[in-house]
Amino acid sequence: MIHSINNMILSIGDDPTREGLNETPERVIKSWNHLYSGYDQDPKDIMKTFKEGTCDEMVILKDIEMFSTCEHHMLPFFGKAHIAYIPDGKVIGISKLARLLEIFSRRLQIQERIGEQVTGALMEYLQPKGAACIIEAKHLCMMARGIQKQNSVMITSSLKGVFLDKIETRNELMRLVR
C-alpha cells in the first residue's frame, strides 16, 4: 500500500521522498485504519439486549457527532445524528446507539445508507415497535469542489415501523430532536 500512496503523490505532481512527505504513506495507512475501522466490526457484536417489559416509550440519543467518507470522492462528511427506537420488550445500553452509528459511518459511505443501516440493525436485533435515524451533515465533496456551497447541510431520515406508519409518532420524534 505504501507504494500505491507514493504513486498517488507522484501522480498529482509532488515528490514522495521530500521532507514532509517521506512518512506520509505510513500516516495515511494509520489514518485509514481508523477512518475505515467499521469494516472490521459486526453490529451484532454490540447489540446485547436486556429484557424490559415495562419500557414502551421513545428512547432517543440526539446530537451524536459523526463523520464518514463519501464513497464517490473519498472526501469526508460530518455532522450529527439522532437515533431513536420504541422498545417492544427489549432495550440496549444507550452508548450502543452511538457505537452502531460509528460502525456504519467508518466505511466508504453515502449518508442515506448509514441511516438505513442503523435502523435496519435496530429492527433486526431489537425488534422494536419502530426505529429512526436522522442525519444532518456537511459534505466536503460539495463544499471544496463542484458547486462549492460551504453552508449547505444535507438532512436524511430513515424511519421504520411506527415512526413511518404513525404521523403522531413521527411528529413527536421531530419535536424532540429539534
Automatic annotation (TrEMBL):
Record keywords, A-Z: Hydrolase
Keyword Mitochondrion set for record: no
Pathway named in the protein's UniProt entry: Cofactor biosynthesis; 7,8-dihydroneopterin triphosphate biosynthesis; 7,8-dihydroneopterin triphosphate from GTP: step 1/1
Residues of the GTP cyclohydrolase I domain: 4-177
InterPro entries associated with the record: GTP-CH-I_C/QueF, GTP-CH-I_N, GTP_CycHdrlase_I, GTP_CycHdrlase_I_CS, GTP_CycHdrlase_I_dom
UniProt cross-references to Pfam families, sorted A to Z: GTP_cyclohydroI (PF01227)
Catalytic activity: GTP + H2O = 7,8-dihydroneopterin 3'-triphosphate + formate + H(+)
EC number(s) stated in the UniProt entry for this protein: 3.5.4.16
GO cellular component terms given for this protein: cytoplasm
GO molecular function: GTP binding; GTP cyclohydrolase I activity; zinc ion binding
GO terms under biological process: tetrahydrobiopterin biosynthetic process; tetrahydrofolate biosynthetic process
EC class of the enzyme, as a word: hydrolase
Name the UniProt record assigns to this protein: GTP cyclohydrolase I
Lineage start: unclassified sequences, metagenomes, ecological metagenomes
